[in-house]
Specification:
The chain has one domain: Rossmann fold (3-Layer(aba) Sandwich), CATH 3.40.50. It is built from 11 helices and 10 strands. Strands 1-9-10-8-7-2-3-6-5-4 form a 10-stranded mixed sheet, sandwiched between helices. Helix 7 packs antiparallel against helix 8. The two termini are 26 Å apart. About 11% of the residues have low confidence.
């Protein structure tokens, strides 16, 4: 997701069952793991690595159990990095080193921050830039207020070839062995033939770039089930995609952000801080997720940007749905065309040309309960 935050009012209408559990874990398929992901002796305290899934195992963190140096990065840009905050905070106590990144929409000049490659810049709380829209710096300043210095790697919105080079520069510098892409919403799972794709350009560029990297552990975590309805994403088709990935052993389960968790409390604090620091551009996605974490339901408004529209906040919005990045990338029906893109206009062209040549083959599907 990402670009939905740059739009006007949002209308969210979807199905929501009653949710009462912390974990919705997927069992009954073998653990899929890269040979380089590490044996049990490489695991650090706090992340459990098991030979098989069971009801006491969180597949997401089981997959990360062999990792030592992890990047948590916003997948679709804008405020997507905020959806990675709880994962960052949890991993910070359990792995050797964890970093934050994001596909940025901020205007970063040639002298802004530290340029690692043409399409990636490292910024921190002191980096000069716009006071109107610079969520990466706002977040870094919030971390500083919590006595944590957390710079952010800002990836430019560009084509997959250029973005892959940027990611490779970061992987080489940080010696990453795991990447978690955090998506605010669920449109990153749309493969191309659905009735609506949401705003797939940034999401799929990030997914295709990370897919090309030789990194042992690559995960996509979606937070905000329902927020993409405004962009015509059919959530029955999202669930169909989840089922398809589950059959391949690439679905890493679901976990809830609950109000009593420290990670949830700090996430809410960071979102509120961002609203205060960027009052002209509050994130619809992050605030909708925050409403769900707080336990609100239905037409609850947390920001002026949604006034006048009808929302459908539900417990499903505060759940992480996690997947193997490579499996998600391979489902994309226009992956090969994406992999040849150099600039952002190329990515946009590929998406529109695909939809023009292959109109939506699936109509709107309603969840029947």
């Amino acid at each position: 997701m990402g670009r939905a935050d740059g739009r006007g009012l949002v209308k969210l209408c979807l199905w929501a069952p009653s949710i009462g559990c912390l974990w919705m874990l997927v069992a009954k398929w073998p653990l899929i793991r890269s040979p380089e992901s590490g044996a049990a002796e490489r695991s650090l305290p706090g992340l459990r690595e098991a030979d098989a899934m069971d009801l006491a195992t969180a597949p997401l963190f089981q997959r990360l159990a062999g990792a030592r140096r992890v990047m948590v990065s916003g997948c679709g840009g804008g405020h997507d990095l905020y959806t990675g905050i709880p994962l960052y905070l949890y991993l910070k106590k359990r792995v050797e080193k964890v970093y934050m990144g994001n596909m940025t929409f901020a205007e970063l000049g040639p002298k802004t921050g530290r340029r690692l490659a043409p399409a990636v810049t490292l910024i921190n709380a002191d980096t000069p830039g716009s006071d109107d829209f610079f969520p990466e710096r706002v977040l870094s300043r919030w971390f500083r207020s919590r006595d944590m210095e957390v710079p952010v790697f800002c990836f430019q919105r560009t084509g997959v070839v250029t973005l892959t080079q940027a990611w490779q520069a970061v992987v080489d510098e940080l010696q990453l062995d795991a990447i978690v892409l955090a998506d605010g919403g669920t449109d990153s799972l749309m493969r191309g033939d659905e009735v609506g794709l949401g705003t797939p350009q940034e999401d799929l560029a990030s997914i295709a770039a990370v897919h090309a990297l030789d990194v042992p552990i690559k995960i996509l975590s979606c937070l905000g089930f329902g927020v993409d309805t405004f962009d015509q994403v059919c959530h029955a088709q999202f669930l169909d995609a989840v089922a398809a990935l589950q059959r391949k052993g690439a679905f890493l389960g679901v976990l809830s952000l609950l109000p009593g968790m420290e990670e949830s409390r700090l996430f809410l604090e960071a979102v509120d801080h961002c609203v205060k620091e960027m009052p002209g551009a509050p994130s619809v996605v992050a605030n909708s997720i925050a409403s769900a974490v707080e336990g609100h339901f239905g037409n609850h408004h947390r920001t002026w940007r949604t006034s006048g529209s009808k929302l459908f906040i539900s417990p499903l919005m505060s759940m992480y749905w996690s997947f193997d990045v490579d499996a998600v990338a391979k489902r994309c029906l226009y992956l090969k065309e994406l992999q040849r893109t150099v600039g952002y206009k190329d990515v946009d062209r590929v998406v529109h040309e695909f939809r023009k040549e292959y109109p939506p083959m699936r109509g709107w599907e309603t969840i029947p309960y």
